[in-house]
Task: structure prediction
Amino acid sequence: MLPAHQRMAEIFLENLKGRLTDELGIELQHCLKVNADYCLDMNFLNTQLIQARITKDVKWEAHITAQMDWLRRTGKVAIL
Result:
């Protein structure tokens, strides 16, 4: 889980108590952007992983798996 995911959950719980402040609303938008980027990057890598497995390219598969692990830990796409 990325720090943005944790913070998004915290802001969501604050929202249950009532209307968010403008500051929290902006922070929520930032967290949502981080989440959207993460999802798009992970989906792209998942598609590549499927292609690597279909073609039985174990070297490519290992490379993509390493990129996915890096993305899960950092939220950034690795340039390996």
User: Anything to note?
Assistant: The helical segments are 3-17, 22-54, 58-74. Residues 22-54 form the longest helix (33 residues).
